[in-house]
Amino acid sequence: MNFLRRILGKKVLKPRDIALKIKRLMDSSKTESVFKIYVPYRYRVFISDEDMKRLEPFRPFLIKELIDYIHRYADKQGYHLLGEPEIFIKVDKKLGQGNFKVEPIYEDNGKQTMIFDKGEIFAISENQDVTRVFKKKSGGSPILEVLEGNDEGKKFNLIGSIITIGRREDNQIMINDPNVSRYHARIVYNNNNWQIEDLNSTNGVFINGKRITISPLKSGDKICIGSTLLKFRLK
User: Fold this and answer.
1) Which of 18, 80, 106, 141 has the highest count of CB atoms within 10 angstroms of its CB?
2) Contact predicate 22/63, CB 8 Å
């Protein structure tokens, strides 16, 4: 590394340092509930214009590695992620080559993170304070019930504004089905409405027999992913 610095005359950006910064932010930003420890799952990474040009061919691979790192560290520490991790790499023209900044993203589509509990919605602000508590307007707390498949009979309460569904254990809803992708779909609550999105799964998402990419959800809708059939309903 010192050899590279002597040649380039400038500091060299190391992706590992970005991962370690995200790790420290996860530790410092954790929020403990009754049973779980929540940490941010979306981050902005700011780098210099020079470093962006150098990393551009490798950016998709770097983002994938950082996402894998978040999953592994969360699993190791017992942290709970409210959604599939996302990394956004942007240029900050004020930064010199080799320097970077990382910040967690707390808002969901420009809004505060939402936590559901017994029919109420708690809004968590950037400083982790509960700033609003109000009753959900359209029905009760949502539930996903497995009608057919290896998990038949299971019921999942939808907790959070983004709920991922897939085969991996770090999904909010883990489905024991080899035909389900690791991160198959996600259910999103926005503007007092629920919708489901396909996360580029192999076998797709079907609502009431129709394949969708993104679709609103209403109580009673049947969702098919892989060989598993689920029913979305409000209490």
Assistant:
1) 18
2) no
How many CB atoms sit inside 10 A of residue 137's CB? 7
Q: Kindly state whether residues 162 and 91 are assigned to the same domain.
A: no
Q: Indicate if 175 and 215 belong to the same structural domain.
A: yes
On whether the CB atoms of residues 83 and 41 are closer than 8 A, the answer is yes
Each of the 235 residues of the chain gets a pLDDT tens digit; together they read: 444 444 444 677 888 999 999 999 999 888 877 777 888 888 999 999 999 998 888 888 888 899 889 988 988 888 888 777 888 999 999 999 999 999 988 655 444 444 444 444 454 444 444 433 334 444 456 899 999 999 999 998 887 677 889 998 878 899 999 999 999 999 988 777 899 999 989 999 999 999 999 999 999 999 999 999 999 998 7
CATH, residue 228: 2.60.200.20
Read off the amino acid at residue 69.
Y
Amino acid at 196: I
What does pTM read for this prediction?
0.48
